[in-house]
């Protein structure tokens, strides 16, 4: 029995890579487009960050300095995201048998932590500025912020058409959205200071932007951590999938010891034990299970262990 299973598993791997090279062609093309989008956004963000930092120092605006600091880490984060796409293109190796696709999720998680740290720093700096407001040159601050908004909108439009299921792309988008909000806050602060002369509005608006960024960063970190911890994808109900196989695939008596996870937030995988009825064709059943998982549940790669009697892993494995 084990010989049959090993032969099938080898057979599946040989054809699985072949299928991926054909079926995954559009996926590879989309990833290539996303990589280009991130590269352009990184150039835009990095280029303007220098101008905004100088503008913030000259005008004395925390909103501009905070946004420039945010853009600095955003630029680094975008280059990291681009590098992650490059690394993910590498084929699997003897040591990295799944390839490097999960690097994108790792970068997304790192981006979330970075955004979180920036937002906390902005809040701390804002408290100091609110207690002792420095003079702010609102005129130059306004024009620097407007230019920043134009650059950030351009970056947002470049990234906006990318794959929304990719945590790496979403991490890049979160950074650019944070920059857009920072620029809007700086423009609003400049206008209020020009009209009223009330400089505390600068740190107040900076804190509001920081809080908005914090909530988005938290969601990104949570989702990336779920993937890294190999949690069941949000769009998959593991127990319902097991029941569907039991009822929909002829010859299957029971499904247990089932694990479902995602490699990078978009590619889902599974392992399971299928206990078959006596006389059932193991190869045919395994093929039917894999086809059902792919077509109905979005699980593109599955390893199925076939059993006829007792489970090789013991009775505990029978519990879902």
From TrEMBL:
Cited InterPro entries: Cation_efflux, Cation_efflux_CTD, Cation_efflux_CTD_sf, Cation_efflux_TM, Cation_efflux_TMD_sf, CDF/SLC30A
Protein name: Cobalt-zinc-cadmium efflux system protein
Record field: transmembrane: 38-58, 64-85, 106-128, 140-160, 172-198, 204-221
Membrane topology: Multi-pass membrane protein
All copies of domain Cation efflux protein cytoplasmic, residue ranges: 234-307
Residue ranges of domain Cation efflux protein transmembrane in the record: 38-229
SUPFAM superfamilies: Cation efflux protein cytoplasmic domain-like (SSF160240), Cation efflux protein transmembrane domain-like (SSF161111)
Gene3D superfamilies per the UniProt record, alphabetical: Cation efflux protein transmembrane domain
Subcellular location: Membrane
GO CC entries: plasma membrane
Recorded superkingdom: Bacteria
GO molecular function: zinc ion transmembrane transporter activity
Keywords: Ion transport, Membrane, Transmembrane, Transmembrane helix, Transport, Zinc, Zinc transport
Organism: Mesorhizobium australicum
A UniProt-annotated Pfam family: Cation_efflux
Family of this protein: Belongs to the cation diffusion facilitator (CDF) transporter (TC 2.A.4) family. SLC30A subfamily.
Region (Disordered), start-end ranges: 1-30
Main location, first listed in the record: membrane
């Amino acid at each position: 029995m084990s010989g049959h299973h090993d032969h099938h598993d080898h057979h599946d791997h040989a054809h699985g890579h072949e299928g991926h090279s054909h079926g995954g062609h559009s996926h590879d093309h989309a990833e290539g487009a996303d990589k280009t989008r991130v590269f352009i956004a990184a150039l835009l963000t990095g280029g303007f960050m220098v101008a905004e930092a100088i503008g913030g120092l000259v005008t004395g605006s925390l909103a501009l300095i905070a946004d420039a600091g945010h853009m600095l880490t955003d630029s680094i984060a975008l280059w990291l995201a681009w590098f992650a796409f490059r690394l993910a293109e590498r084929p699997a190796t003897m040591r990295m048998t799944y390839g490097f696709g999960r690097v994108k999720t790792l970068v997304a998680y790192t981006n979330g932590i970075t955004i979180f740290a920036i937002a906390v720093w902005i809040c701390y700096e804002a408290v100091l500025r609110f207690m002792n407001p420095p003079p702010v040159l609102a005129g130059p601050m306004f024009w620097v912020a407007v230019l920043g908004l134009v650059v950030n909108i351009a970056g947002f439009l470049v990234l906006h058409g990318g794959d929304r299921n990719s945590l790496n792309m979403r991490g890049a988008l979160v950074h650019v959205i944070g920059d857009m909000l920072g620029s809007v806050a700086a423009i609003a602060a400049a206008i209020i200071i020009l009209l009223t002369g009330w400089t505390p509005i600068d740190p107040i608006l900076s804190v509001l932007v920081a809080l908005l960024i914090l909530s988005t960063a938290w969601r990104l970190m949570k989702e990336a951590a779920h993937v890294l911890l190999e949690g069941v994808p949000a769009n998959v109900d593991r127990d319902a999938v097991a029941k569907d196989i039991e009822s929909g695939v002829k010859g299957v008596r029971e499904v247990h010891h089932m694990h479902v996870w995602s490699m990078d937030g978009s590619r889902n995988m599974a392992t399971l034990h299928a206990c078959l009825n006596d006389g059932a064709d193991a190869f045919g059943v395994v093929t039917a299970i894999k086809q059902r998982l792919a077509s109905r549940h979005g699980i593109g790669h599955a390893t199925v262990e076939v059993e006829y009697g007792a489970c090789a892993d013991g009775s505990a494995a029978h519990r879902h």
